[in-house]
Fold:
Amino acid sequence: MIENWTELVIGIIMIISPWVLGFSDISLAKWCNVLIGLVLVIMAAWTISGIAQQAQLPAAEEPKKERSHKNNVEQK
Structure:
């Protein structure tokens, strides 16, 4: 869970870094940081909110056959 919050913070830092570090006049670098930061923020928020877990389909569970050691010994 802490990884998701860390990803969110890193995404926010990437979004604001062109202006904080002073390279906002370099268009390609600015937009790369902003877009990657937005992707990180959206993915982290999606995971933190629990939507990712709700979207997963439940796996088909096979019925478990319970065998005790006693039953195996009696059958032999």
Notes: The radius of gyration is 24 Å. The chain has a mean pLDDT of 81. Helices lie at 2-21, 27-49, 51-55, 69-75.
